[in-house]
Amino acid sequence: MLGLLLAAGPGWGAASPGPVRAWGRNDFGQTNVPAGLSKVVAAAAGLNHVVVLQQDGTVAAWGDGYFGQTNAPAGLSAVKAVAAGADHTVALRQDGTVVAWGDNYSGQTNVPAGLSGVQAIAAGAYHTLALKLDGTVVAWGRSQSGQTSVPAGLSGVTAIAGGGLHTVALRGDGTVVAWGDNSQGQSTVPAGLAGVTAIAAGGLHSVALKQDGSVVAWGYNSNGQATAPAGLGGVTAIAAGGWHTAALKADGTLAVWGRSYEGQTRLPAVLSGVQAMAAGPVNTVVLLGTPPR
Predict the structure, then answer these.
(1) Pick from 130, 124, 128, 133: which is nearest to 156 by CA?
(2) Contact between residue 244 and residue 258 where contact means Cβ atoms under 8 Å apart
(3) Is residue 1 assigned to a domain?
(4) Could you please report the per-residue DSSP string of 137-195?
(5) Start-to-end Cα distance in the chain
(6) 262: CATH
(7) Can you say whether residue 213 is alpha, beta or left, with left for phi > 0 and alpha for psi between -120 and 50 degrees?
(8) 3-state secondary structure of 87
(9) Of 122, 198, 273, 274, which residue is the least packed, with the fewest Cβ within 10 Å?
(10) What would the pLDDT profile of 176-201 be if each residue is shown by its tens digit?
(11) Using an 8 Å Cβ cutoff, are 181 and 219 in contact?
């Protein structure tokens, strides 16, 4: 959901710098990509803001800045990944440390003292996640549904995702673990699910990408967000918004389904060469260009 990193296909490696496009709800200008912004390598979408990582390791953001979520700390540099929650923003630096800013009502920007050796970050609506190099997960922020209560003994994790009030983790053996709110079955991983290469967490649903390029989703399905289109295959990356889901195919095209009241699933008339994407609660963001071979 909130805060998903701009996800590139696993075979592509890092995304190459390119222009950004966004669509969906725009009441705070969150889909108005700043003019001249082109050297972008990653991005994340929050509730009403978008944050991008530029090739030089700096961060740019736009949209709602009421809580300061679009105001990166002065001098922030050497960033290698970004994530966005409802109203907070998170950055992972090259040295494995984490910086967070914006709304802190639930302690979501209070990075644990001494946290280091981090290889990936993610943000739920009001909580933040860090994946360490040793395969363990650290979580902080709101936890009324247990979304920051990492299961005891969880290890061997290779990817993390934060949803509205739940958390999803992918283990090195291709299996998935989820915890937190389960009011819509979003934390009940389908029996026998294996061979997973990527995960995503939406407001009340979860998504998994399998090795064969197929997509599995579960949880709240009010707008069909947990029902992948029939025949969908060749997928290399996934993202989950509040009530919609996106899948990037190997040919650089995008499939999006679920709620579209705000236009988040209505693809631009001409859209190709997508190399990475992110989904916010009510918008979709893509990085265009030629995928690295």
Answers:
(1) 133
(2) yes
(3) no
(4) EEEEE--TTSTT-PPTT---EEEEEE-SSEEEEEETTS-EEEEE--TTSTTSPPTT---
(5) 28
(6) 2.130.10.30
(7) left
(8) coil
(9) 273
(10) 999 999 999 999 999 999 999 999 99
(11) no
- List all residues 6 or more positions away from 235 whose beta carbon is below 8 Å from its beta carbon: 209, 213, 214, 215, 247, 248, 249, 250, 255
Tokens 């967490």 map to which residue? 201
* pLDDT per residue as tens digits for the range 191-246: 999 999 999 999 999 999 999 999 999 999 999 999 999 999 999 999 999 999 99
pLDDT band at 272 (very low <50, low <70, confident <90, very high): confident
Task: Give the residue from 240, 247, 91 showing the smallest Cα distance to 178.
Answer: 240
The residues facing 255 across adjacent strands are 247
195: domain range? 7-288
Our count of domains for the chain comes to: 1
For residue 2, tell me if it sits in a domain: no
DSSP character for 254? Answer: E
